[in-house]
Amino acid sequence: MFLFGNLISALADILDFLLGIYKWIVIISALLSWVNPDPYNPIVRFLYSVTEPVYYKVRYILDKFTGFGGGFGGLDLSPIIVLLLIMFLQSFLVRSLHELAFKLQ
């Protein structure tokens, strides 16, 4: 069983790393939206292609439940909600996987 515990622990570490990278991508994307970057820049296009599908889903859910469409008073709340969701997954899911791996070892 210790092999399965090590596998779960490794998967939890990889998930935590990927969530951390995506968190920084969301932060950089939100900061870039303040300065109106060149839309033809490959880095800007990459950031947009990685974050916008998630923002769209969050905006859709917010519009469905609140009627604000992801924003309130011209402020787009979707990056904040995505960051909160990432932080929740890092503290709940990753921590739970680590504890499960520890119990299996």
Condensed summary:
This protein has about 100 residues and is mainly alpha-helical. It is built from 3 helices and 2 strands. Strands 1-2 form a two-stranded antiparallel ribbon.
In words, what does this structure look like?
79% of the residues lie in helices and 4% in strands. The chain is mostly helical and 105 residues long. The chain has one domain (2-104). The chain has a two-stranded antiparallel ribbon. The protein is elongated and about 50 Å long. The relative contact order is 0.19.
Give the topology, please.
Elements: H1 2-32, H2 42-66, E1 71-72, E2 75-76, H3 78-104
Antiparallel strand pairs: 1-2
Properties at a glance:
mainly alpha; 2 strands; two-stranded antiparallel sheet
Q: What structural class do you assign from the helix and strand content?
A: mainly alpha
The total number of structural domains is: 1
| First-last Cα distance | 6 Å
Uncertain segments are: none
| Structural shape | elongated
Number of strands: 2
Largest sheet: 2 strands, antiparallel
Q: Going across the biggest sheet, name each strand in turn.
A: 1-2
SS summary, helix count: 3
Instruction: Tell me the β content.
Output: under 5%
Q: Fraction of residues in helices?
A: over 70%
Rg on CA atoms, Å: 17 Å
The arrangement of helices and strands along the chain is HHEEH
Q: Give the overall average pLDDT.
A: 90
